[in-house]
Amino acid sequence: MTLERLAGRFVGPVEWPVRAEVVAEFVAATGDDPERWEEFAPPGFAAAALFRVAPAFLGLPEVAPLCRSLLHIEQAFAWARPLAAGEALSVEGRVAGVRSREERHLVVFAVSASGPAGPWLEGTSTFMLSAEPAAAGPEEAEPPEDRRAPSDAARASALPSPGEALPPLRRSASRADLVRYGAATGDTNPIHFDHAAAREAGLGGVVAHGLLLASWLFQAAARHRPGPDPLRRARVRFRRPLRPGLAAVVTGRVAARRPEGADLELALEAVAGDVPLATAAVRVTP
Hints:
It is a single chain. By secondary structure, this protein is α+β, with helices and mostly antiparallel strands. The protein contains 5 helices and 10 strands. Helix 1 (20-30) packs antiparallel against helix 3 (175-185). The longest helix has 13 residues, at 46-58. The model has no long low-confidence stretch (mean pLDDT 94).
């Protein structure tokens, strides 16, 4: 079965009031700065817009049976302006492309969100779908619900010169944090809170949301630009999952400075490992 015939299909638009309390829940679940993001949503809140429409696509009768193995491979976002807490948005999704080869299906899903102040967000998600379960790895015991490693405050920091390293940013999430993040964004895939579902997907146990990892990368970039509109665009490549309770660190460098903003290259790695969990190219505002 192929999905090419779904290319071009729209999902929505969905009307979405961005409640201030949900923004606050997102900030708390991701470990961001609550004082900075009291009146506006942080860039990583784009995940919540995506999950206003993506579940409707993934739940289609033609698609749902192919989600036994679902990998989020890559995510791109572009922000046009700040998003004020309390603003009402209209969110629309579109199947931008599908490529099928035997039992695997590569799907590009686009999202856009706009409100009374104009467009806020454009994004594309790349998913790999298969009806075949992933090969199961060794089973791992789940950590205590509230265990997390130390994290750093995402305090403002001057942007280094091109070629120089960014200060590292430590991050970690507990199993309880994953539940809070899922509630704030609508990303309720059971592999993030249910051990049996994670094992069925071929994982050792529950894992952190890919877009939670992306939010940490965005925090590391956003601390170098003040105000509610710190990022212009970002592309994140997800490379391996992170188990809850483990320590991770964002590192990076300034690749270039341009009139339209500075380009940063970032990597999120598990402290105990040497393979990146995710990598990103981010442009911060001038």
